[in-house]
Amino acid sequence: MSKDVAIVGAGPAGAWAAYSLARRGARVVLIDPSHPREKPCGGGVTGRALELIAASVAGQSLPTCHIHTARFLDSARARCAAVRLEDRPADRQPDLIVASRAHFDGALVAAAIDAGAELRRSRATDIRVERDGVRVETREGALRAACVIGADGANGLVRRRVAAAFRRDQLSIATGFFAHGVTSRELVIEFVADPPGYIWSFPRPDHLAIGICAQADAGFTAATLRRRTAAWLDKTGLARGARLEPYSWPIPSLNARDFDDLELAGPRWCLVGDAAGLVDPITREGIFFALASGQWAAETLAAGLDPAQYASRVREEAIVELARAAKLRSMFFAAPFLGLLIEALQQSASLRAVMADLVAGRQSYATLEWRLLKTCEVGLGWRFVTSSLTGRGA
Ligand SMILES: Cc1cc2nc3c(=O)[nH]c(=O)nc-3n(C[C@H](O)[C@H](O)[C@H](O)COP(=O)(O)OP(=O)(O)OC[C@H]3O[C@@H](n4cnc5c(N)ncnc54)[C@H](O)[C@@H]3O)c2cc1C
């Protein structure tokens, strides 16, 4: 039987789109062969992401580590600063949890199935958008639907069929290790200028997710980046005694001009989450944008509206902010800024509050520069203001 919507990919974007469509009465098929599975990811899920899904998945019910502190390191100068994240009462969504993606994505897929979506455990091998519907070929046969949602990640098939694959300079490589047998209660983050970005350790109940990220065209191979991460682990001692399982994975990482030109929807199709390129180019937070865009696509299609309206909503509610982050990116990870940051964090409680909000996904880039200026950390604030006015990161 033909469906109203076929969704390719059951990560957060596809599973949440399926849930949102099915509970509005749409006939939905969710196509993905991979579950149950872990996905290479920090697994940091911010309060704003948890709020979106609160009606069906409670962050508190997942096996997670509740994070109380983010520690920022400057190992070259042997300095560090700890930022305390807000303690929330048990009945409120936490500011940040770190979840295994097997558990988090599994809970979203279960919610979609409970709401009435069909899970087809198969890989999509081709998509054809025709005048009267969409044909999806899978390894187990073809199926038809009125529309398709591409939720199949950064290198997804749907994007390649309905638009164009991301170029190398629009992707970053994230690589690192799952460190099994050790855990902790704090995030550890070290900003680095070369390659511009950060190294992280995110604790989960029985392991640490550790990684580094660089633009795919920056001249660093995954092997070089992994060696860099291993050296960092030796220096910090964070994963002593752990069994290290390596991973590498692409993340969309667009510049401001790319965001202006992004193809998000067309007749009978929408792209959501990583397949749409919706990842914060500074923090690399993608789970919130995956959930939000999945929900917006579902609301548009369930109401029988033109997919172009979904694209307009993404531009208004996400892309303005993501493009702002892209403009600030090169300044954020530049050595002079990083040099000021740790010392300022050690000294200023109001700057630590700004950082806590940034980590929890509560701080918009629109107000970040003025909030930094108000902390009286004039050097940091001024660099932000000049950078966003000149758009050096674009
Ligand atoms: C190392 C790393 C660390 C990260 N850390 C964080 C973090 O801490 N917090 C955060 O918010 N974001 C983080 N991100 C980004 C985040 O992982 C993504 O933005 C998020 O997973 C996007 O969700 P999605 O549903 O769009 O795609 P995905 O989660 O990539 O899901 C895509 C799904 O599509 C399926 N699929 C692919 N091709 C096909 C096909 N042909 N047929 C059927 N199914 C298919 C795959 O099996 C997969 O299940 C990180 C990313 C990486 C790589």
Structure characterization notes:
- The chain is α/β, with parallel strands linked by helices.
- It contains twelve helices and 18 strands.
- It has helices spanning 12-22, 47-53, 101-115, 157-162, 222-236, 256-261, 287-302, 307-332, 335-347, 349-359, 365-374, 378-390, and strands spanning 3-8, 28-31, 44-46, 64-66, 69-74, 79-84, 96-99, 118-120, 124-130, 133-138, 141-150, 171-180, 186-193, 196-204, 207-215, 243-252, 265-266, 269-271.
- The strands form three sheets. Strands 1, 2, 8, 9, 10, 11, 17 and 18 form an eight-stranded mixed beta sheet that branches.
- Strand 5 and strand 6 form a beta hairpin.
- Helix 8 (307-332) packs across helix 12.
- The chain is globular and about 65 Å long.
- The mean pLDDT is 90.
- Bound molecules: flavin-adenine dinucleotide (FAD).
